[in-house]
Amino acid sequence: MKNKRLKHKFLVFLAFLVVIIELFPIFVVISNGFKRDIDIFTSNPFSFKFSLQSYKSVLTDYMFLNSLKNSLIVALISSSFSVLAGAMASYAITRYKFRGKTAIAYSFLTSRMIPQISLSIPLYLMFRNLNMLDNVFSLVLAYISFNVPYIIWLLLPFFASIPREFEEAARVDGCSEKRLFWSIFIPLVAPGLVVAMVFSFIMSWNEFLYALILTNTQARTAPISVNAFMGQYAPQWGQLSAAGTLMLIPAFIITLSLQRFIIKGLTAGGVKG
Question: ABC transmembrane type-1 domain spans which residues (predicted)?
Answer without folding.
Answer: 68-258
